[in-house]
Amino acid sequence: MNPQITLLNMIRAALLVAIAIYMFIGEKLGPSRAQASPILFQAIAVVSIMTIVAIFLLRRSMVLPALDRLQSQSQDSQALLRWRAGYIATYALCEALALYGFVLRVLGFPFAQVIPFYVASAGLMLYYRPQLPQSEPMASKSSG
pLDDT tens digits for 3-17? Predict the structure, then answer.
């Protein structure tokens, strides 16, 4: 396996574990007092939607062009750095979604309202697993 993919998978695994820790700590720290302002929840929900849009735009502007370039020039170090940076930034934005849920939980919102933040964060992180294009020799062997 490519060392770049191994590195990104380790980062992704650490961030997924962090999401589980946020959920656990949020449940321990989450006050059982009355719910905070619904306006605050709506504001953070809008920020979360904008974060998800930013994830899609980031992947379209950084990861996909780098993948196209690596498809034709597999040894292009600039494209590889851009590809890796795009994935790291994607994972950071995914993690931000979980942090929004954590903050809402600590502020007093019930777990049922914040679980979508955790699920979206983990789901996007699992969906966007790091992939490099197949090398040319393997592609020609499979087609022949």
Answer: 888 999 999 999 999
> Looking at this protein, which amino acid is placed at residue 101?
G
Question: Smallest Cα–Cα separation from 109: which of 8, 25, 19, 26?
Answer: 26
pLDDT digits (tens, 9 = 90+) for 51-101: 999 999 999 999 999 988 988 888 888 988 999 999 999 999 999 999 999
Q: How many CB atoms lie within 10 A of CB 72?
A: 10
Nearest by Cα to 19 from 121, 123, 130, 126: 121
Question: Whose CA is closest to 100, among 59, 58, 57, 46?
Answer: 46
Residue 95 and residue 34 in contact, taking contact as beta carbons nearer than 8 Å: no
- How many angstroms separate the first and last alpha carbons of the chain? 24
Alpha-carbon span 120 to 60, nearest angstrom: 19
